[in-house]
């Protein structure tokens, strides 16, 4: 009996081992298969023109020893291939342990440019909106471990995910193992803070919770805004300066619609001022932040050059828009029959993202037209594709224009000129390869200022936003940056320096 029973148990042991092995290898195979099937257009581009997209963002500043290209970075750039958008906090970056081997020192609060106090708002205002549930009394996810950070939903929501990246950056500022710039540090005593950060995910709340559900009479979005106003009005921190030192992120143009009037004394991080009155939002106190681009960044060394971009001018989007969008319709009829112009209907969503990536990386110029609001994420998609943006949006506010001279890498055309027959194409065809290449080189230098990721990197969008906040807080910095801003702004339509004539 004993002899007999021993043989089958050994047999079963082997059988189980083999089947487990088969199960694992088949799931690995499936995983790889699904990778490639997610992004066929992207891979086609890889094969076609040797262009490929950076899977993980690498540090551009070689002088920063704390940064290594091996340091896992979380960003849609890499993980879109694996799980499409919204999965930017990817489990593939489990190399976080790598960081723990080196002894890192937490950011020293006396050296940081900006000390920020963050309210301990309950999760329903921030990560709870992402479906995250912590343990009892836990307010924040553990940001030490990438796999424990809730992912921001993909698709178009991601454009306005600025709230998420800024909050994660603050949370990580006291963790020694997270390597990030020391521009901002979180302090736990509000009297020691330069700025009070309000961690409300306003854009997500608008995008995901504006509709009434079940027998609700007030939407979650409205309710949260009401609660937030009540919370802030009751805080000593708010009363101290009437909210002037508070920082709120309301990147989606429709976010915080109910609360914005009452909280208008605070600093806002916005996409543009299109839907704000000048008393509530203005350049004196507020900050324009880039949209989180949806297409993947073209790797600098593999970026198609002038002759490798067969399309002269590319535009993808809706043709009919309200307000400033009339220009779209006029331009469409002017340009639709030109053979080197690709003017395509359709949104940048789902497969549209791959098409747009491919289209923009094959084009010399990318149109950026006023839509419902003066800004649009298309500009940032163009920058990520190193496609020289042609901006036809007279009221557009551009991020970090105090620091960046956009005339070095964008063409600005007034709407009144753009709608004249032949004007736009004559202008673009008249731009010499040499001039275009200069702009393209500049695009490759500035593109990292427009990228959001966790952990943040020196000079990326998160870091730039904190720097912009600190410039507003110091009066000498403020004066200097206002001057720089006006100087750059004036250069938008002044092409005498670059050799491009627009008049
Ligand atoms: C959570 O907070 C409440 C109130 O402060 C306290 O009574 C309770 O013990 C806390 N629970 C845990 C697990 O810390
Ligand atoms: C991160 O969290 C995951 C899931 O809970 C766990 O399996 C993993 O061991 C953690 N990694 C580290 C470095 O703590
Ligand atoms: C990462 O892995 C954990 C478990 O290992 C899972 O619960 C979580 O959803 C994963 N996150 C992402 C973004 O895939
Ligand atoms: C917070 O900082 C202020 C000023 O530095 C100090 O007077 C106060 O005691 C601090 N409060 C706490 C709870 O540490
Ligand atoms: C324009 O782009 C679309 C999609 O990217 C493509 O199907 C079409 O062939 C392109 N047209 C030209 C003229 O390149
Ligand atoms: C899609 C695309 O951009 N194709 C171009 C790749 O580069 C060659 C020249 O190197 C062009 O001829 C193709 O049009």
TrEMBL record:
It comes from the Eukaryota. It is a single-pass type II membrane protein. The chain crosses the membrane at residues 12-33. One of its GO terms (molecular function) is glycosyltransferase activity. It holds the Pfam family Exostosin_GT47. InterPro entries: Exostosin (IPR004263), Exostosin_GT47 (IPR040911). The keyword Membrane applies. Coiled coil: none annotated. Keywords: Glycosyltransferase, Golgi apparatus, Membrane, Signal-anchor, Transferase, Transmembrane, Transmembrane helix. GO terms for cellular component: Golgi membrane. Residues 113-415 form the Exostosin GT47 domain. It is found in: Golgi apparatus membrane. Belongs to the glycosyltransferase 47 family. This is Exostosin GT47 domain-containing protein.
